[in-house]
């Protein structure tokens, strides 16, 4: 059932013990919104626990209270009044779904979230779930401490590519400005998010060597196979290196996450990549979407390239002839 933000605030006010969670493969918005929520609810004297069923990327473990995020244990059970799911529908929270029978309150900004069997507040115009939480603090009358502001700003900054993507709206800047007034230092957040080890920078160069263009240069892909994946803790930002290519509409990153588990990230300039992601069992936004393919790396690569090509023929972004040609070109060999 879709509810308003006022109703979200009421549900929160009525609950005493609350679990907060967000999606697996957590990003800055998932972790930032979880940690902001944890702190906001504590200022309201709620008993709150934060769970995410995944390892936190190292760039986010230094966020305030990140050490409080737990992974659910085998057969763990917790009674609570409310389970707040942030930045995803319940299908991407792993085992957190099994640890409690509490009613679900789902707060998200993904247009693909159709979770109407639970209490759902979805605002697709919000740049980040953190932007929604920012507005929620006003309704709740909660004070935004510096630590809360740091978490919310991190989510806003990471989901907007530091205020560069098309989801960046006046409201995003207004929220960001107020968070800076609360004590956030934008340079320190950027430094923290962008920090890489020497080896990871080296991997960036190796990753770029794998990049190939498809469909007459309108699609570009980067391939982090098992070997390359072992050398880096994060693939954050890699896709941004190739999506800038002038001929490209759709950029994707295929990452090996384990045996027959491949993560797909997609970005676009005009194509609705959320539709392609949904066809492959994932979701996301018009210009940024993703999915997980339970296939070998080679199979995943073929399935993904075909799915992108087929959708681009359907939406007249490439011609059937360009699709049929099915040629891949290394960046160094591409001429346009
Ligand atoms: P990413 O490329 O991981 O930054 O993801 C881009 C967008 O797509 C984010 O908003 C994700 O939350 C969303 N997304 C990624 N993977 C999935 C998935 N398997 N199911 C639904 N949404 C996804
Ligand atoms: Mn997210
Ligand atoms: Mn988000």
Kindly summarize this structure in a few lines:
The protein has helices at residues 5-14, 28-43, 96-99, 129-140, 146-159, 170-181, 186-194, 198-209, 226-229, 238-243, 273-279, 297-314, 320-325, and strands at 17-22, 47-51, 82-86, 104-108, 119-122, 212-214, 219-224, 250-258, 261-268, 283-284, 288-293, 328-330.
Write the layout of secondary structure elements.
Blueprint: H1 5-14, E1 17-22, H2 28-43, E2 47-51, E3 82-86, H3 96-99, E4 104-108, E5 119-122, H4 129-140, H5 146-159, H6 170-181, H7 186-194, H8 198-209, E6 212-214, E7 219-224, H9 226-229, H10 238-243, E8 250-258, E9 261-268, H11 273-279, E10 283-284, E11 288-293, H12 297-314, H13 320-325, E12 328-330
Parallel strand pairs: 1-2, 1-3, 3-4, 4-5, 7-8
Antiparallel strand pairs: 6-7, 6-12, 8-9, 9-11, 10-11
Helix pairs in contact: 1-4, 2-4, 2-5, 4-5, 5-6, 5-7
Bound molecules: adenosine monophosphate (AMP) and manganese (II) ion (MN) (2 copies).
Adenosine monophosphate is lined by residues 27, 92, 110, 265, 282-285, 288-292.
